[in-house]
Structure formats: C-alpha cells, structure tokens
C-alpha cells in the first residue's frame, strides 16, 4: 500500500463525506459514529483495491439505505423497522464490510492471490445486499412469509422469515453488486455466476441462522450473524469460482 494511494484515498473520502453532508442526508444514512467508521472503511478500500472496490461498497451503502427506507412509515407502525430509522452505526458498517475489508487487506499482503480475493470481496457485498434487499422489500411488499426452518406461515418481518417477493428482491440486489463489479473490471466476467450463486446461498443460510441462533446468547446479535453471512458469501464465491475453473 503506497503512501500516495493512502493520501488519495483520504482526499476522496473527505470529499465524499463533505458531499454527503451537503445533501443534508448524512445522518439519515449513517449515525455520527457510523460516518467516522465509513470514512475509515472507504479509505481502506480505496487504498487497497482502488476505486472499483470503493465504488462497489458505495453502491451497496446507497442501495441498502434506499431499500431500508421503502415504506418506512408502514414498517414503523408494524414495529418491524430497523432501529434509528435505518441509519447505520459502526456495528452495521463492520457487520456488512468486515469480510470485504479482510479480503482487501489480504490482497495487498498476498498480491498473488488478489484476483481470488477480489471475487471474495464482491461476493461478500453481494451477499449482504441480497440479505438487506430481501429483508426490507420483503417487509414492504411480501404477501406471505414463511419461517425458513419449518415453512410455517408467519408475519412479514419475523426473524428468519422468507417471502417470494423478498427472495426476488434479494436476487436482484446480489445481481446489482455482481454486475457492477464485472462492469468495472473488479472481477472477470466469468466470476458473475459464482458471485451471484454464492450471495443467494449465503443469504438463505443467514435466514436459517437467524431463525435458529439469534438471541440464544447476548453476543449473538444480528450484526454478528451479518458478519458470518459475508464471510460465508466470500468463501462460497471463491470456492465456486475455483470449481468452475477446474471444470473448464
């Protein structure tokens, strides 16, 4: 990681933060502490994997915020809205981005593995947007929700519930991140299917974890399970890519 890259990253993220404040929406998207941690995250990503990874994370942040705000009044009335009206704090930033950040830092430490780690990075964010879109749009538009472990019908917004509408929205979110990463040459075109499949599979696994584990221990929070989701997405993305390469 060259010092010039770090200085460039600091400047870019300072400008991005200033623009966010200029819109008047900064604290609607992130808490004050969340903004600081997002600045650290953004600086790290630009310094390590460049603008492609940084903008992929920005796309995730913006898209995740948009879907979270959909029908917010209805979600609040039903008691199923995200806390702080969807403003992300440090725990949300790192729950979503810890795996991707680890991939970015590892790509600098082990440049010979950078192509694989970029796939892991992409799959981790695709998995998280898949989960966020499925959850938030499932709450907003899901007509019938079922508990993923028993298929028992439950109210939309129930932890561990899935719906047809939410599942479709999640797949679209995963595709958005994956196709953007391909379009910016962060990952090769052939990585699209492995990343997309990994994201959807990881998001469904996260639903099972939420239904069976969340709340069993004080430390087993939604943010911890989100971090597990992104690690699983990254690992599956790399594994599916290697399997695809082996068969080709």
UniProtKB/TrEMBL annotation:
Keywords: Membrane, Transmembrane, Transmembrane helix
Coiled-coil intervals: none
Transmembrane regions listed in the UniProt entry: 36-62, 162-183, 224-243
GO cellular component: membrane
Pfam family, one: DUF92
Membrane topology: Multi-pass membrane protein
Cross-referenced InterPro entries: DUF92_TMEM19
Record bears the keyword rRNA-binding: no
Domain of life: Eukaryota
Subcellular location: Membrane
Record family assignment: Belongs to the TMEM19 family.
Protein's UniProt name: Integral membrane protein DUF92-domain-containing protein
């Amino acid at each position: 990681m060259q010092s010039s890259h770090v200085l460039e990253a600091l400047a870019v993220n300072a400008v991005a933060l200033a623009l966010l404040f200029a819109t008047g929406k900064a604290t609607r998207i992130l808490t004050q502490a969340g903004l600081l941690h997002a600045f650290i995250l953004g600086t790290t990503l630009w310094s390590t994997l460049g603008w492609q990874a940084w903008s992929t994370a920005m796309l995730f942040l913006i898209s995740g915020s948009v879907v979270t705000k959909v029908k917010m009044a209805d979600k609040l009335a039903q008691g199923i809205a995200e806390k702080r009206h969807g403003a992300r704090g440090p725990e949300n930033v790192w729950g979503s981005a810890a795996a991707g950040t680890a991939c970015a830092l590892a790509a600098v430490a082990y440049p010979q593995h950078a192509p694989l780690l970029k796939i892991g990075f992409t799959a981790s964010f695709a998995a998280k947007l898949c989960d966020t879109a499925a959850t938030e749009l499932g709450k907003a538009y899901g007509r019938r929700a079922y508990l993923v472990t028993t298929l028992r019908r439950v109210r939309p917004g129930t932890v561990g519930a899935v719906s047809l509408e939410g599942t479709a929205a999640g797949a679209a979110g995963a595709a958005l991140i994956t196709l953007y990463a391909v379009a910016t040459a962060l990952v090769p075109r052939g990585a699209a299917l492995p990343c997309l499949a990994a994201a959807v599979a990881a998001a469904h696994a996260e639903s099972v974890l939420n239904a069976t584990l969340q709340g069993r221990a004080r430390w087993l929070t939604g943010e911890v399970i989100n971090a597990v989701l992104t690690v699983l997405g990254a690992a599956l993305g790399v594994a599916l890519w290697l399997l695809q390469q082996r068969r080709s």
